[in-house]
Amino acid sequence: MTVNKSNNTIQAAWVALGSLFAFGFSIVSSIILSRYFDKTDYGTYKQVIYVYHTLLIVFTLGLPKTYSYFLPRTNDCYVKSLVKKITTVFYILGALFSFSLFFFSPQLAKILNNPDLELALKVFSPVPFILLPTMGIEGIFATYNKNKYMALYNVVSKSFILICICCSVIVLEGNYLTAIVGFTIASLISLLFANYLKHRCLRDKGSAPTLVSFKEIIKFSIPLLRASIWGLLLGNCTSYFISRYFGTKVFAEFSNGALELPFVGMIVNACSTVLLPFFSQKNYESVNAKDEILIVWKNAFEKTIKLTYPLVMFFCFYSYDVMEFLYGAQYHISGLYFRIMLISSFFTVIAYAPILIAIGATSFFSRVHFVGACCVIVLQYTSILLFNSSFVVTAIYVVCNGVMIVSMLLYITKYFNTHISTIIPFKTVGLITVISFVLSWVTKLFSNNIPVLNNSLQVIMVSFALYFFIYLIASNIFRIDYSYVMKLFSFNKK
């Protein structure tokens, strides 16, 4: 086992780079489809992806995290056997998922009130069997400090998805069905490449029969499965209510706007991917696990806040400009969804999942998601009856998600027998928030009064350059330390 604390910066940088490219390719494909499809066809395509990601949570049974949990605790001679055992389960689940999509497509189309969805899901049905075996491979790469493989996998796989979709839509002048066929072909290429990278990563490991039984794997994953199911309801009921009660066109507008700022997801996912194997190993081996885990987690938490809050605040002010640039003037209203969802980023920067999993608090993790899902469903349905507003439905999700994250943060402080003020640097958070708000407001006023900035791209570029320059000056004046950013992007050892 080779989890190396001193190497965390380099590994996090590779994960972040891969996540950035993955998000970039996803955005580019959305930009292309938004312009070549009308809202009805585009909404149908987005519904297919929505159904896939919704059911994916159920059919993976919480297994993607098993790599990050068990591999740091497994002797090298058993590694290949353990990975093969988990991968076999993924193939079985993928087959069940594909059959379910094909045979239950009429019912799913009826639920989402879109007759065109039935055929689209049948065409898409081979994808789960192809892609499920690639789930969780980031845990393998993170465990053995090979996250550059994850970055390479994201770049190659997402490139092929983009190329195949572009060829089917632009070159062949196809519709959403040909785009799905292109997605399927690219998925097969992704599977082959993932298997190749897994083989390279594990080529010096042994293949002796693993001591980890299926029972242990399932025992670990079941609480995560329950949490995933509640998380499924929590994260997707917003899409369901909007799709069901507000129509395909509104769903298309919501789908484009209800996205996370890529830099936030990139940074948080990088921290989670790298820290989970480290926390799992320390909690298994070290007598001073609590002290070591808390120190590393606090450090990562504070750095994440410093890096993400200024970006989130800036894009809150420029949400409409971003949507118009990405998807065109017809999706101007998506900017309001984007702004609402950005508010949740002030909470989601907390990488709570890896520490809860590592300390064995998966049951609590599951209960919180259950209560949160119940609250969101009741409140969102009530809001439809009272206000009939898709924006209120979106805002309810953001508020409930924030409350859930705070409750999990309080649990962590209790576990480590500390106070929340020792984990959250309230002074730094307040200072960064105020500075970011003022500078964003000033740059927005500036850009609104310059007539030569006549399109959204110019507004965003000029405003961000000005904002970035002034913020650097302000951070030096108020002594907000960003020296670690240079270490991250220069790939220094420490």
TrEMBL record:
Its main location: membrane. The chain crosses the membrane at residues 12-37, 49-70, 82-103, 123-144, 151-171, 177-197, 224-242, 262-279, 300-320, 340-361, 368-387, 393-412, 424-443, 455-478. It holds the Pfam family Polysacc_synt. It is a multi-pass membrane protein. GO terms for cellular component: plasma membrane. This is Polysaccharide biosynthesis protein. The keyword Zinc-finger does not apply. It is found in: Cell membrane. Keywords: Cell membrane, Membrane, Transmembrane, Transmembrane helix.
